[in-house]
Here is the input.
Amino acid sequence: MSDDRSSRSEGLGRDSARDPLARLGASDPLARLGRLSWRRPRRGAARAAIVVGSLVGILVGLGVTVAAVSGVAAGIRDLTKPSTAVPAVADGGAVTEHMSILTNTTGQLGGQPKYTNTSWTVKKGETVTVVITSYDTGTAPLQGAQMMFAKVQGTTTGTEQVGAKTVSSVSDVMVAHTFTVPALNFNMPIPVATHGHVTVTATFVPTKTGTFVWQCYAPCGSGSNGAGGAMSTTDWMEGNIKVVNG
Ligand SMILES: [Cu+2]
Here is the structure.
């Protein structure tokens, strides 16, 4: 290229109007071709350089724009979002759900025990205190696989309060009912009300959302195995707990 450059310098240095060679060169198709072929890459290179330069400029501009836009977006996000990470659902609140187990029922299932407030809604992540007051003075001793429901499970302390006593289980022969939410691995055994009534209290924190069935697993219903009547009737020994986002 340096040779071409020098010859071009000579060419440029010539006065084409007075130099026949220059004129010849200018009119000679081969010479023109040569000149063109010499100039073309330079023009091409120049164009390429301009194009590349423009592209770089555009890309840099785009980059700056993107950075600016994302910066603005980040700024907007920062402005609209809480400054500290907040768990999506937990509100750190607390709620108490009161349930009773009555035995003075009338009608078709007359005399059979019945829970009140059988369906309620709580928030995921909040502390739920369940207070169950039972008026049932009869027992429903646990049988076979039901034995596992003598144990308190899934409460924040692993225990429950029976009156003023803190217990981690209830004697299986003294159980009258259970308040069990299998999907939440939660179980409160309710002992017989030896003094007219007994109040059992426990707390738990639901960690997942959904609608979960709770059930009594003590054979307190009718029939030979105690699984009929109240035990197989919704809103008697069975209900729903709905856990929603806080
Ligand atoms: Cu029961």
In short: The chain has two domains: 2-80, 94-244. The helical segments are 2-13, 20-27, 29-80. The pocket of copper (II) ion is lined by residues 113, 177, 216, 218, 220, 237 (CB under 6 Å).
